[in-house]
Amino acid sequence: MNKDWNTIEFLRHVRHDWLNKIQLIKGNLDLNKPDRVKEIINDIITETKQEAKLSNLDIPQFATKLLIANWENYYFRLEYEVLAEEKCQGTEDEILAKWTTLFFQTLNQYSKPFADNHLYISIHSMVEGFRLYVDFNGELLDSESMFQFLHQPFSHLKLENIEMRKEELLFEVWMDREQTGK
Hints:
Elements: H1 7-30, H2 34-55, H3 60-68, E1 77-82, H4 93-110, E2 118-125, E3 129-137, H5 143-150, E4 157-165, E5 168-176, H6 177-180
Parallel strand pairs: 1-2
Antiparallel strand pairs: 2-3, 3-5, 4-5
Helix pairs in contact: 1-2, 3-4, 4-5
InterPro entries: Sig_transdc_His_kin_SpoOB, Spo0B_C_sf, SPOB_a, SpoOB_C
GO molecular function, one term: phosphorelay sensor kinase activity
Pfam family, one: SPOB_a
């Protein structure tokens, strides 16, 4: 799952995604469903704005992990939302990207294949630090091992408010700018 993306492969996936979106619009126009076309266009605008916000946070390694996650053949679908437009100066991008890679791999390992698994990440950048709100809805094959992974220390990251329910996993990831020394 940790594929080394070159520019051509990246552009191939982007082009494929855009072609799918255009075909959705064309198909709904052919079916004379202008309201559905408007919904699709609004979804595209929202998604593109979120991609721009993520790209502008000044954490390129972490942003790349999120941008390509749905191309990595994970057993979950990722959605994210950037709720702060403040740059993440002082946030250790490499640490955040490494933890995110480990988390995605671990979640994929314990997610039931081909189930309706969704991962939602809400990103907040504040003066005092950086916070992720993580919400997984789906089926885990081994929730105890997933729970153990989330309790392992990882550099300057603090995982807080970890909750596991039957088909939901919730937690927060916090990185304090003072602890990173930046």
